[in-house]
Design brief:
There is one protein chain. By secondary structure, the protein is an alpha/beta fold. The chain contains ten helices and 15 strands. The strands form three sheets. Strands 1, 2, 3, 4, 5 and 11 form a six-stranded mixed β-sheet that branches. Strand 1, helix 1 and strand 2 form a beta-alpha-beta unit. The structure holds 3-phenylpyruvic acid. The site of 3-phenylpyruvic acid (PPY) has 15 residues, from helix 1, strand 3, helix 4 and helix 6. Pathway: Amino-acid biosynthesis; L-phenylalanine biosynthesis; phenylpyruvate from prephenate: step 1/1. GO terms for molecular function: prephenate dehydratase activity. Its EC number is 4.2.1.51.
Length: 308
């Protein structure tokens, strides 16, 4: 019975994402922070971790990005994309006029600034560890209102002041399901590969050179983020997401090129995209596995003096 550690407590969006991925017999284990959910998998206390990685309004979840780049490597085996609309929870009997403080995960607060300005303009905003962590804080009297996932209302004895709250229609959050390195998910033709790299030199054009390794092989870059390396200003890690699976020749070849040219590359997984129908990882002309196999055969023949 596999266990899935998720960014909790109960009633977070991460729990919703974990439920999308989980089989009915899997056990779900809430952890208070993203690093703790990942640490549980590294320590062998859980088989999988489900954590948020980015959303369409606020961008990257830095706690996840930073925790994936250090300590023992973990690899993604799946992604889950959820539409995000919020509920506002208060203690029973509390009305909008009574709300002096409102708390939530910073990414949730960022997505409801317009609504707060219109409905709770005088309330002080505080960052909580998670949306459901804010609900716990409302329950124990720390704050008056929490911005939460709709399901949080089922887990905490709180009243719903508002539902369907979102400044941006259609906002989405992407979650990764991660495990310790092992057998990779099968190649589906609708895959994404993620990695983090540190360029080997601070020199003009180095990032363009590295990205060209993808472009030359017809690989579509779907996301790039940078995060500081912490110890020194001006040194960055680059996180890349691109179409394709490492089992494909063009992707393996591109990874090898990045590995040759970077100070450090960490593979973060090849896994099926959440939206398969609309996003096939098509290899551009001359970059299919067959093209690579034929070309390698030809080079071998040239080396053996069998052809000119
Ligand atoms: O706090 C949560 O519920 C999370 O899972 C993180 C988060 C916060 C805001 C939007 C989506 C996910």
């Amino acid at each position: 019975m596999p266990s899935i550690a998720y960014f909790g407590p109960r009633g977070t969006f991460s729990e919703q994402a974990a439920l999308v991925h989980a089989a009915p017999t899997d056990s779900l284990v809430p952890m208070d922070t993203v690093p703790r959910a990942l640490a549980a998998v590294r320590a062998g206390d859980a088989d999988l971790a489900c954590v948020p990685v980015e959303n369409s309004v606020e961008g990257a979840v830095s706690a996840t990005m930073d925790a994936l780049a250090v300590d023992d490597p973990l690899v993604a085996v799946a992604e889950v994309v959820l539409p995000v609309r919020f509920s506002v929870l208060v203690r029973p009997g509390v009305s909008a006029e009574d709300v002096r403080t409102v708390a939530s995960h910073p990414h949730a607060l960022a997505q409801v600034q317009g609504w707060l300005a219109r409905h709770l303009p005088a309330a002080t905003q505080t960052a909580a560890t998670s949306t459901a962590g804010a609900a716990v804080g409302v329950g124990d009297g720390t704050w008056d209102a929490a911005i939460t996932a709709p399901v949080a209302a089922n887990h905490y004895p709180l009243d719903v002041l508002a539902t369907d709250v979102a400044d941006v229609d259609g906002a989405m959050t992407r979650f990764l399901v991660l495990r310790r390195p092992g057998a990779l998910p099968e190649r589906t033709g609708f895959d994404r590969t993620s990695l983090v790299m540190i360029a080997s030199a601070e020199r003009t054009g180095v990032l363009a050179e590295l990205l060209t390794e993808l472009a030359l092989r017809g690989i579509n870059l779907s996301r790039i983020e940078s995060r500081p390396q912490k110890g020194r200003l001006g040194r960055y890690r680059f996180y890349l997401d691109f179409d394709g699976h490492v089992a494909e020749q063009r992707v393996g070849d591109a990874l090898a090129a990045l590995h040759r040219r970077c100070e450090h590359v960490r593979f973060l997984g090849s896994y099926p995209k959440a939206e398969r129908a609309s996003s096939a990882s098509a290899a551009a002309l001359g970059n299919s596995d067959q093209d690579y196999t034929q070309a390698n055969r030809w080079v071998t023949a040239v080396r053996n003096g069998e052809t000119g």
